[in-house]
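User: Hey, quick favor. My workstation is busy. Could you predict this chain's structure for me?
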Amino acid sequence: MCSLRRNPTGSATHLELRHIAFRAWESVWWQGGAVNSKGALCGLLNVLKTIKQEAEIPVNIIFIIEGEDEVGSPQLEDFILSHQQELNGDGVVGFDFSQDTSGKVSMHLGLKGIVYLDLICRGGKRGGPAETSLHGSVSAWISSPVWRLIYALGSLTDGKENIKIPGLYDNVKPPGREDLKFLRKLQKSFDEKAFLKEMKSLCFKYDRHGIDLLKKGLYSPIINIEGFHAGYDGSGTKTVLPRRATAKVDIRFGPKMEPGEVKEKFTSYLLGQGFDDIEIRVRDSYTWSKTDFSEAIVQQMIRSCRLHGIEPEVWPIATWAAPYFVFSRILSLPVVSGGLGHGGRQHVANEYMTVKGLRDFEMFVAIFLYLMANESNQLRQFVE
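Assistant: No problem, here it is.
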């Protein structure tokens, strides 16, 4: 599966696939979408074109390409449900540039689910300007929808961002025996200092380390505020009492929580706290995905990494979200994501990928396809 997305990224422009081949002599390609995920799609297409010029593609490949990931893939589930008979297969691969700056490769067997919300607070029955924004001096007499939304957001978590919504943790599934094996390996290979450096951050939000940090980050639900807007934010000064304040919030969760219960508990909590004047709009939501380590498609991805002299770091679940549930939980197909190649700064300005990483990624994909087809002779010829 590949998603083609258009994200607002400040002054950065968006990648056009045809440019990659023309600029291949450069060491780094800077462009919106370079790593997430048009670069990987371009690499896959390059591999298939190259194989096709010399022989037959060794496996049957069904492409599912959709461009609505950033708005919640609202049509994907219906599409999958209406085409189930056409989508039989051995598994699903989300090819990604998954190497960090040190060359370490990560692959993921699961993804979290997500509920994305708009919160809107307007002046009205709970106070505040009812028809239009007012002069800032009027805040001596009239309450502020901006402060009210801030109070509502502040009530969701404690000072360490632990969620305070009653019952939200009730259905959180702790890591099972197999997942704990991965976590024990990860605590040895996961370089906390290198991760913070790559994320350009100074510390983790939890005072935890090792397996405790991994458990908290991978298995606990989180609430993140994507953005907040109210009133005047231009240059200079303008005193105003805004009539309206908005926030964009996402809640991410793993097994065995489901989007319906997350939305219901979130809404009930705000109502119970007296924030019945705050409108809650669900932008998108979908559930989690999980695949067993023993699946053949997982093992062949590991073998493909090893043929490059790399032992991949296997993560039982990722903190990011994508609608892989349509494959794992509707089609009952194993899903794995990963690949060689390096890039970074997804969803923000100056997104980039390395040209060497693209070349490594293409070789990785070719070897993986031949491994899935069990065509060792052709694999040997391709590698040579």
